[in-house]
Amino acid sequence: MHDAIAPDLRARREAVIRAHADAENRHDVEAALGTFHTPRYEVVPLGEPIDGAANVRALLRGLLEGFPDFRAEIERLHHSDDAVAAEIRISGTHRGPWAGIPPTGRRIDVPLLSLFMFDGDKLECEKVYFDMATLMRQLGVVT
C-alpha cells in the first residue's frame, strides 16, 4: 500500500494545475508555459509527444487560434504518487484551422482526462486522453 500524499504536496500540485488551467482559460500561453518545470505535452489522439517551450507554445497557440473561446473546466482531481489525474471538460467554437481541419464554426464540448505528471511539485508533462471520434462528430467532420 502506498503512503498517502502529504497534504502540502497535494495542495502545491493542485495550485500548479489550477494555475495552468486558469492561464489556458485566459489564453495566456506564456503563463501556461510557466507552470511547467519542463514543458511537455502528450496529446495521445494527436500522436507524437510535444517537447520543449517552443513546441508547446506552438501547440497552445494553435489550439487557441482554432478555438478562440476555448475553455477547460476541471471537474475532479485524483492524486497518486507522481501524478494527478484531472477530469476536465473542454469547450469552444471551431473558428480557425486546428490539427489540419479547416474551421467548421461548430461548438465542441468534450470530456477528457489529463494526467499531470510531477516530480515532487514540479510539473514535468501533461498527458491528455480524449475520444477523437466524439470530437470529430461534434466538428461535423465525421458522422
Describe, in short, the structure shown:
This protein has 143 residues and is an alpha+beta fold. Helices cover 33% and strands 34% of the residues. It has a 6-stranded mixed beta sheet with strand order 2-1-6-5-4-3, with helices on both faces.
Portion in beta strands = 25-35%
Oligomer: single chain
Q: Which structural class should the secondary elements be placed in? A: alpha+beta
Number of helices: 4
Please provide a written account of the structure.
With 143 residues, the protein is an alpha+beta fold. It has one domain: Nuclear Transport Factor 2, Chain: A. Helix content is 33%, strand content 34%. It is built from four helices and six strands; from the N terminus they run H-H-E-E-H-E-E-E-E-H. It has helices at 7-25, 29-34, 53-66, 132-139; strands at 40-43, 50-51, 71-79, 83-93, 107-119, 122-130. A six-stranded mixed beta sheet has the order 2-1-6-5-4-3, with helices on both faces. The N and C termini lie far apart (46 Å).
